DUF2306 domain-containing protein
Amino acid sequence: MMTLNDPKARPVGDGAARLAADRMLRRAAQAWFCVAAIGQAAFIWMIIAHYGRKTLAGDLAGWNDKPIIKGYVAGDALGNFLFAVHVLLAVVVTLGGLMQLVPAIRAKAPALHRWTGRVFFVTAFVMALGGLWLTWGRPTYLSLISAILVSLNGVLILVFAVQAWRMAVARRFDAHRRWALRAYLAVNGVWFLRVALMVWAPLTRGWGMDRTLSGPADIALQLCAYVLPLLVLEAYLRAQDSANPNAKRAVAGLLIGSTALTGLGVVGAVLILWRPYML
Ligand code: HEM
């Protein structure tokens, strides 16, 4: 009788190559996720240390200590309240998204997974609608093109969150997983933007950027912040389904490149953007 450790039971030829390529793909995705989780934890830390602390102390004007932030506006009670809700829920949605992707939570605490999933989707919805109101209703934008590009991100969050929810209700769990991953990446569009800006700006000394986020590089980076991660995800999902080990290896390589770029951007974002507000 063969056991799991019996060499005769191991797949040979194409089967073995496919398993090795699957493992490589999985490890590359895990590496990206670990680096992203560190960067998202730093983002959460900054939000709590800056916005959380100022809000608790009642120093709403202190929100604006961060450059180019129109958080507090004297006399705009509704706008200030909605800004507070937006930035404080940013912690919930970012943390909730991270927790959804931890396999141990999914496997060992399925009830927690279901509840964080519900909280994540409701919060993502509120954040996207609130963000759209802050942008166009308040209004808060650095340039019209930057407002349009972040609004597209908001619309994608709404579409993906609705789709993921619908698929879960219909118990189509494979489709649910795909839409939930898209929603996770779209929700992190604002985080990706900061990471992307902090790769581009130091490497090119700010080529194509200006202070209103309307230079050619700014426009490309704002679009890439959600389009590129979504394209990489589509490649990853296809590679998972593919029987071709070369396709899996190629996407694993793409993920390793993405991990390096994400890591660089996270270091830049922490050192340049967030550190002064994390202490
Ligand atoms: C769901 C994911 C989102 C997260 C986690 C998030 C997070 C944040 C954070 C942390 C801030 C404070 C700015 C900073 O200190 O860097 C902020 C501000 C803001 N967000 Fe969002 N946001 C999200 C989605 C959106 C969307 C989709 C829009 C627009 C459609 C939007 C519009 C805004 C606006 C207008 C501000 C004020 C910016 C300023 O004063 O210059 N957000 N957001």
About this structure: The radius of gyration is 21 Å.
